[in-house]
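Summary for the funding panel

The consortium committed to producing paired sequence-structure records for every protein in the target list. Below we show the first two records in order, beginning with the earlier of the two.
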Amino acid sequence: MPDRFYLIVDHSSWLETFLPLGVKCVQLRLKDQTESVLRQQIGKARELCDAHDCKLIINDHWRLAIDEGCQWIHLGQEDLNAADMKVIRKAGIQYGISTHDRAELNRALEHEPAYIALGPVYQTVLKKMPWRPQGLAKLRRWKNSIGDTPLVAIGGFTPDRAAGAFEHGADSVCVVTDVLLHADPASRVQEWLSVTRSGSAGS
């Protein structure tokens, strides 16, 4: 399952800063790039994560992830439409799936993912969302529905909001802009690691 602190980055260069700090789970989310750039970025990220014993999760680009020897991918609902799940399973790839409503959750569970993500729990500035903030109570309902499958909470999280996510059933909190747009990203990562591993963010 993902680490309690699950970081998303948009370029492999971030990993040179964050991995030495102790980050153990990171998703590489690359948008609007050529295939050659994607391959270079994924390959570099895999090398860095392997060297630091960090779980690397590739967003969407499952064929390239397989080609580059990665072990994890993340699929959104639209990604599922184009993904060949038989090929992904045959390659031994573990995968997580995003969900926002009950129909998407039911669809995701049919694919037996390694984890389920729910979001946005809070308002997010990452991108325009057609969904309102889901709220903490929905995390509890999702956890009751998925049982032992790990639950990842995403959307609008700050370190002081992490405890609420864990208390409502999340196994992991996923963070993007709170780190990448912070004035001091490295210190923010250290704060997140302290919060999620000290026990102050829930059991």
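The next record, for a separate protein in the list, is shown here:
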Amino acid sequence: MNIYRARNPRKSPLWQCTHRHFSTFLTRYPDEYQPRQGPLRPTIPQVVDKFLKCGTLERGFARIRCDNCGLNALLAFSCKSRWFCPSCHQKNVQTCAEFLVARVLAAVPHRHYVLALPKMLRAYFQRHRPLLKHLCTAAHQSLTLYLRSALGKSKAHPAIILTLHTFGEYLDFHPHIHALVADGLFTRDGQFHPLSELPIKPLEEIFRAHVIQLLVDLDLLPHDRVRLLHSWKHTGFNVHRGESIPPENKAVLEQLAQYILRNPFSVAKMTLHSGGEKVIYRSKLNPKINRNFEIFTGPDFLATITQHIPDKGAQMIRYYGWYSNKMRGQRHRVQDGGVPADPLRPPCTPPPPAKLPSKKWRDVILKVWHTDPLICPHCQHRMRVLAVIDQRKVIEKILLHLNLWSGLPAFLPPRGPPPAIPKHWEPDDPQSRDPFPDYDNVFTD
């Protein structure tokens, strides 16, 4: 077994860039970035503030000890931020991908679809964030109509998992949909009807019609622009369909699930230059500019990546048809012996979705790196958790005693209590269902 070496988040180029330039980014936002991206969304400083404290002892920690050699260590919490902190989001990717393959996907072939918009329409979704959920609905309706028309079964159900991406190869705002779709339709009795090979062009036309109609219905798209879009020989809408993946190939399905759940950007593609004042972001060769990198100033890079932070509560993963919470709940009740529905719950309300098992920090490290982080680095014996410390006064007292207290960087004023959540509310996104703190970095005495 390898020895676990904890990461140092402050050595990350992302942390260094954010720590150095975030205050400047906030100051310059109204004049330089708001005209293009709209008013600063409250979730941006909240998520960034959490990220800057990720893996720092001041946020709280677990005390661990090796009973064999007496080694004591402090295990810092991570921020658990999704779609920004690369380390924490990767934990969610691993957990959710495993959940999808083990608990959601039926034992039938699946395909990967990508549905993208022309550049002309992307700004509508950037300035009107609630439109993004309607984009998911348009993609679902398009796929459903396409599959039902192909098989001639108007009452059968597709099995669709959608993930919403807002980022392009060089981090520009590029909203598009990734879909993991069963390669056929299910009837209510559970029978699966496979789909034969079909041309993809009809799906593109259906998706195009749904999106244009969506913007017209909301009075966002002028009629002259509608006529222009319909006049284009090449529509600008793009639909990709992958190869059919058989159900027994679970490793490929899990890799695909991880791909469609990935973080908007990669720290491995970042390089700091000019004393940290500039960021070079490398990716695939862009034939339009004939280079494989983009250069940003620090504040510009933060403006670019923070636009992809979803609003609080936004569902970036959605389940439709055979995979919807309602139909999965109905099947689970039948499997459990036909337990009747809760009489206090209205019959039209879907049952709560299956809970995502909490994937602990240790389990994720074991799966990704094949390393047990609770193995003592000195004597190789198993370490145990003595206590979880999350009270501010106790944290400060311990760290001051160990000469490890450095204070908390703060960009935000103290916030009031969160709004009340309805009693029966459940998020559709299983990445948001882990109620426990994550452990991250190890500091030994």
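Regarding this second record: The first strand starts at residue 61 and ends at 65. DSSP finds twelve helices and 14 strands in the chain.
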